Amino acid sequence: MTPAEIIADLDTALSHFGADAVLRRVTWAGGNSTNDDVTVRIQARGYTPRELTGNIVQGDTKVILSPTQLVAAGWPTVPQTDGTDARVPRKGDKLVIAGRVRNVEAAAPIYVGGELLRIEMQVRG
After folding, report:
1. What is the CATH code for 3-124?
2. Predicted structure pTM score
3. What's the whole-number mean pLDDT along residues 52-68?
């Protein structure tokens, strides 16, 4: 399968079995904050007891999302200056699921052939 086919399969699965959420990056300039929001399709579930290790605690949520909406929206509008992929959520970003704001604790991007295919996140709150 090509990376495009893998992303298309993920998008199809998320369209059928996922939910909409808002990914938010808060940026500060001159003492003022602005929200850089993008609506994304996600699959969210709680962690199993066996997965509660390290920094993962009871009540955290595992979230899977596709890069499709991020790329289409040009999210985030402010690029990273440290060389990391700006499309990948980072600690401190927010994910609003069903009106509830959660904090991104960690994100694991999955690449094939240098192309971002999927993002798995740990959110809390």
Report:
1. 2.40.10
2. 0.88
3. 94
